[in-house]
Amino acid sequence: MTRQEKGLWTAVIVLTLGMLVMGTVMAMHGLRQGKDGADASHDANTEEGSTVATINGEVITDKEWTDALKRRYGSELLLQMLNRKAVFAEAIERKLIVTPQEIARELAAAMDGYDSEKSYFDEMKSQLGLSKQELELEAGYRLLLEKIATISIQIKDADIEHYWTEHREDYVSPEKYDLSIIVVKEKDEADSLLDALEKGEDFEEAARKQSTDSFSRDAGGRLGWIERNDPFQSEEILQLAAGLDVGDIAGPVRVEEGYVIIRLNDKEERQVQSAEEVREEIRMELALSQADPLPQVEQMLRNKYEAVILSEIPAS
Q1: Which whole number is the average pLDDT over 170-182?
Q2: How does DSSP assign 101-136, residue by residue?
Q3: pLDDT of residue 174
Q4: Burial of 9 (0-12, 13-18, 19+ CB in 10 A)
Q5: Contact (Cβ atoms closer than 8 angstroms) between residue 50 and residue 33
Q6: Residue 273 and residue 170 in contact, taking contact as beta carbons nearer than 8 Å
């Protein structure tokens, strides 16, 4: 499985987990509905469940809500619940585990491109309502599934070394820069602004007032973390950043949009993964390329553990 495919799989897993979260709510309300019905069976209104919302004088009941969730997400949710039970049963049988370190590495890969760990978890929470713990659980599930899929596949050391030689740069994190920028049209304006910044003018305030870069202007010029080999950034900006110390302001440099002044907010040095980590990652990539597709492995496990759906999902 390529890194791009892993990224796509991660996106699918996150969306699936969102359905699981909604499904948990659905199940909880279903249990509560049953309890309410038992406690108040004499009340005719309990046939439709308790009221969860009202609009324009009309009510939406607990039953209507859960039925709508089932129609929309029921089939996918039920299948994923069965998959998880089957995968965990197989992991117990084969004595497979996923370590906290493995989960941390998996999440670190998913965070690539985010400004920080906090910004990644904040984005997952705001966009999908998923907590750090939920993301860790889902990463653990996928890693277990991969281990099950590849457990009987043997990869030769020579194949690992050959792959590593051919893809060595894939296992190196290039130098990264946390940059803020101000873009202006004319060089005279840029020179004057650089002089003012060197004398103490506030960079963020100047960016909001004078920068023509709509992407960074409202954030006080903050561009965020970029890699030394980022193909979407000007080589002139990257070369300038490479020679700066944290806190330095420099420029102007000519770019297509005009002239840029940059400030280096922070820097991360080039990092090389340990040989042990690289070999294990390559072993898994090569094994997954030979393994059955992961959805097929899930289906095989459902069959092995005799998964049976006893209740039809309401039609949409």
Answers
A1: 89
A2: HHHHHHHHHHTTTSS-HHHHHHHHHHHH---HHHHH
A3: 85
A4: middle
A5: yes
A6: no
Give residue 141's pLDDT.
94
Q: Copy the structure tokens of residue 163.
A: 């792959």
In this prediction the pTM is: 0.62
* Run of H or E residues at 250: strand 249-255
On the CB side of 207, CA atoms within 13 Å amount to 23
Residue with tokens 């050391």: 157
Output the furthest CA–CA distance in the chain (Å, rounded): 83
- 261 contacts 181 by C-beta, under 8 angstroms: yes
SS3 category, 169:
helix
Q: Give which of 230, 227, 232, 223 is closest to 261, Cα–Cα.
A: 223
Please report which residue ranges of the chain form alpha helices under DSSP H. Answer: 3-39, 62-94, 100-110, 117-128, 132-150, 157-166, 187-198, 203-210, 214-217, 235-242, 275-290, 294-304
* The residue to which tokens 């949009």 are assigned: 257
Pair 148, 271: CB distance under 8 Å: no
Distance separating alpha carbons of residues 143 and 281, to the nearest angstrom: 12
More reliable by pLDDT, 60 or 34: 60
Mean pLDDT of 164-175: 87
Which residues 6+ apart lie within 8 Å of 121 measured at CB?
Answer: 131, 132, 135
Q: Tokens standing for 307?
A: 């998964």
Number of Cβ within 10 Å of residue 146's Cβ equals 21
